[in-house]
């Protein structure tokens, strides 16, 4: 039964990776007109699907940690993989709490949200007071100076999907 259960987990990983990949295909790559809502929808989909893979491979509950370790070993996944860290996804998922913290006990705050950089590759220092920002050229998402390289995440997910394929239909 364990083998079948693990096959189901691996199939779910493949499904979540496909969701992230489809979302990534909707991210704009040129400076033409684009739908800002669709960009943030795609980013949140990538973050959510990646977090779902992360939760399968690095479960938070003690009783599931053995399963996560065995799956990581089966797939030869680095313990320190970028997808093990769900911080950026958590910032998006719990945005209400981040707003509360930002404004709590302050009479004024510098606040810019949902920022985009120019469509050219460049060093882009996101100001400290930016909440959510996206660098389209480099595919880097930022939340309050914490960054996540979506290209790197998507490459790792593709690699994991390939490893899962050996065990799934």
Please characterize this protein's 3D structure:
With 169 residues, the chain is of the alpha+beta class. The protein has 6 helices and 4 strands. Helix 4 crosses helix 5 (95-103). The chain is globular.
**Unreliable stretches:** none
The DSSP helix count reads 6
Structural class of the helices, strands and pairings? alpha+beta
Major sheet: arrangement of strands: 1-2-3-4
Determine the mean pLDDT: 89
- Portion in strands: 5-15%
Beta-strand segment tally: 4
**Terminus-to-terminus distance:** 17 Å
Instruction: Spell the H/E element sequence.
Output: HHHHHEEEEH
What level of helicity do the residues show? 40-55%
Q: What general outline do the C-alpha atoms trace?
A: globular
Main β-sheet, in a few words? 4 strands, mixed
Gyration radius (Cα, Å) is 18 Å
Question: What is this entry, summarized?
Answer:
The chain has 169 residues and is of the alpha+beta class. Helices cover 53% and strands 8% of the residues. The longest helix has 24 residues, at 2-25.
List keywords for this structure.
4-stranded mixed β-sheet; 8% strand; alpha+beta; single chain; 169 residues
